[in-house]
Amino acid sequence: MQHQDWMRLALEQAWLAFEQGEVPVGAVIKQDGQLIASAHNEKETRQDPTAHAEILALRRAAELSGSWRLPGAILYVTLEPCPMCAGAMLQARIPHLVYGATDRKGGAVESVMNILDFRCWNHQIQVTAGILEDECQEMLQRFFTARRYNINDRA
User: Fold this and answer.
1) Catalytic position from the list 54, 133, 135, 138
2) Which residue of 41, 71, 78, 113 could cross-link 136, Cys pair, CB 3.0 to 4.6 Å?
3) CA 69, CA 55: separation in Å to the nearest integer?
4) Is 22 a catalytic residue?
C-alpha cells in the first residue's frame, strides 16, 4: 500500500468523527506494513481535551505493542498535528509522520510552528505533508460549513 491508501483509511476515521459531530480528523498507525491502530477525534464524545485522533491512535498502538515506544511505525493523520500531538509523537519515538491538510491556526509541524524541528530532541521525525490534501481539507470545510448552517449530511 502507498501513502495515499493509508491516508484513505485515516479519512474513513475522519468520516466517523464527522458523523458523530466531532471535528473530522482521523489517524491510523502502521507498523511492519500492518495497520496496528486507528482512531478519530473524540473530544466532544469523551469530554476530554486530549482525545485527539493522534493521541487515541498512539494509545491504542502502545497498548497493542506492549510498549510506549513505536519504532518503525508511521502515523497517518488527516490534519497537521497540534503541539500536544506532535509532542506525543516525539515521546512515542514515531519515526515518520504523514499528514494531509495543513492547519494554519494550530499546526505544530509547519504552519504555525515546527515543534519537530528542534535539534535538542533525542529523536527526529521524518515528515511527509500534503497527502490527499484536497480531500482532507474538503472534509474539514464541509464540517464547519454544516456547523455554521446546521446541516448534517455526508453526501
Assistant:
1) 54
2) 78
3) 14
4) no
